[in-house]
Fold:
Amino acid sequence: MLTVILACAAALLALAAFAVVIVRYAAATPIIYGMTMIVTAISLAAAATPLFGAEPAAMRTLPLGLPWLGAHFRLDALSAFFLVVVDLGALCASLFALGYGTHEQAPQRVLPFYPAFLAGMTLVVIADDAFAFLFSWEFMSLSSWALVMAHHREPGNARAGYVYLTMASFGTLLLLLAFGLLAGPGGHYSFEQMRAAHPSAALGALALVLSLIGAGSKAGVVPLHVWLPLAHPAAPSHVSALMSGVMTKVAVYGFIRIAFELAGAPAWWWSMLVLALGGVTAVMGVLYALMQHDLKRLLAYHTVENIGIIFIGLGLALAFKTYAMPFAAALAFTAALLHVFNHSLFKSLLFFGAGAVLTATGERDMERLGGLIHRMPQTAFLVLVGCAAISALPPLNGFVSEWLTFQAILLSPQLPTWGLKLLVPAIGAMLALSAALAAACFVKAYGVTFLGRPRTGAAEAAKETDRFSLVAMIALSAFCLIVGIVPGVFIDALAPVSSSLIGAHMPPQIGAQWLSIVPIAASRSSYDGLLVFLFMVISGALAATAIHRLASDRLRRAPAWDCGYPDLSPVTQYTAASFAQPIRRVFGSLVFRAREYGEMPPPGDVRPASLKVEISDLIWDAVYAPIASGIGVAADRLNRLQFLTIRQFLSLVFGALVILLLVLAIWS
Amino acid sequence: MSSINFDIAHLLAGSLVLVSFLELYQDRLYALLNVYAVHALALAASVGWQAFAQDAPHLYVTAGIALVFKAVVIPVALHRMIVRLGIHREIEKVVGVGPVMLAGIGLVALSMVVILRVTQEADPLAREDLAFALSVILLGLLMMVTRRNAVSQVVGFMSLENGLVLAATGAKGMPLVVEISVAFSVLIAFIVIGIFLFRIRERFDTVDVQALDRFRGEHS
Structure:
């Protein structure tokens, strides 16, 4: 299977080169996306088999990279699972792009990098030595950077690319240091040797912190998330979906690989660190999202929130693993992985929806949309499914994984230390808060974008999107529903992953009655998505029939009551800003230092009244702005070094040499 | 190893340092080139003695290279070059002979302290050789820093390189390939620098490197 996957990665790289050649022809777009669909479908099939049949990990060494090391690749259960996430996302994105890509203004800036990006992500998850891992990681970062810069003339995109590149290099640097520490003085760069090495406690802890920051900056953990809401929306929508839905998961993979496998036995504070970061990320992500009016940026901030939820699951798994509670650890770990899978599904779906809206109207600002449910009914329905899934409403998939995470949180009283006993319920409260706020946020996003009356001519003239995009969205919504209804199948498929890293797995779910899932014991808790779904369908159908029978013939259409003002313009509708105002009043003054300035002209003055809201990003102001200005000052100071004479340069070298020799003479 | 061997190696390497000091205060280009030729001669003698003392015949080749190229070909070529440039009678103001000599003495002391302390277990012949070689290198750098004329900077670079060869031959068992490649790299550097000298001269009518800085426009 590994051979097939490596061949697929090579095929993707070849496609990238091929795209450079044929990009001038109009047929390039369907050819490239069609080929990537075929390749990713093959790769998906190859990756899914190890999850369903218990296969031993396959390994292979290719004579690439460093001459004495070669490039090691390995396909174990964890890689296979993340490969499924990557390939499923890539398959749907390619299908979507068959339609969406035809509207692309600059295909020569997208087509060559798209397959390269996919190849990079594939290689990261199957890499089995530090060199191959970091090389593919950086390859993935750079190709996605090129995709972010595809529309580089649009305002803000150049800055987004710059911030992204800086943060990506920073993260890779930290991962490099982490692997350097784990490799030890002997330079054992293959993961096989690192696994066997058992690093000392201090070394492992340092590697964990470095990988948490390094991989976390790629995943979007607060406060390292700043690049994410800039870069993800800047790319073309199918790439946004891949970056948000899949690339952040590849970063989660990197963290899991180091924290659960390579860094050795966890210390007591590891889980607390991960849990605290996860909780803060979840709440901050959704609060940022609530303040956004840009559809794609709102989705990007929700990715931050969901990464927080995933990290809460991973933190719980680490906590239970530390105190040798394997079944609870397996539950938390499975919940996190299931959320990885679920988030990749509904986030891709929602970004596709945003892309469809963007092609139909040319707008990303919600305040300029509205009423799209009448103009794009199918897209509107599919996006509604995505919104319900991400808001964790049963019977869809988002509910299952968040419910499992809560089940794991409810096991926290069994933990032996008071620190965790107190911390975990607080994290649970933060998780609940973020789930509720996420629901509010998607009510806002969906309501303002699709309901009501169109606010602009562009929204008025919108047309339903093309067939390919619809099929891609239908496939993803079907997956959201299937995972929600029969989660047991997917939980069982994750069993090999959790047994390989935790040493235990959740009890098999397939045999349970009525396809329900029972994470711990039937007496404790169980959830049956199928019954919920059937109940909703049957009761909904009954209600609809009853209403149709009893009320439809009495329907009459009349002008809406306009409070006595004739000719209400669409601008008077409820806006995204007005929807978010109560939440902004509650949290915003603290978190964003939000200030409202209302101006009401005195009677007799004909100026319109105005309301201005100022929001400042405290994390940017407190962390990034000082660093940026410090670098600027230092660069200004050092700039003089560029304008020395030849003799001054020579003197610098000479002086440095003499000083080093002096140090040597004095010290040794 | 007999003590006479050691003493002669010491004498020859030490004379190299002495000639480096001589180079430091030469303010006429002709005289400077002559002293450089002596410098290379001392190097050749030192390397030749090392060849005899270590019983390493390939070092004779190195000595031969030093004798032919560094003591004859390069000084003659530089002579002809400065005659063609018409600067053979120029007197270069050395930046204060006294301080430069004092700095040179300090550098030699520093290199002695560093090398003798770092290489306590090493063979005494190699130790002394390395200490002298580091002194020669530092003095060459000092010369490059204190001179303004491009030709004297080239001479400083060449004598620095002589120090490198001295260091390399002092250690036992260095393959000939390394020495030959070092010699050729110096030759190439010499050619490149020669071409540059003519280009600078054509463009700016002088080989004073400060003219370059003037033309960059920062130090008007």
Notes: Residues 3-194 of chain B form one domain. The two ends of chain B are 60 Å apart (CA to CA).
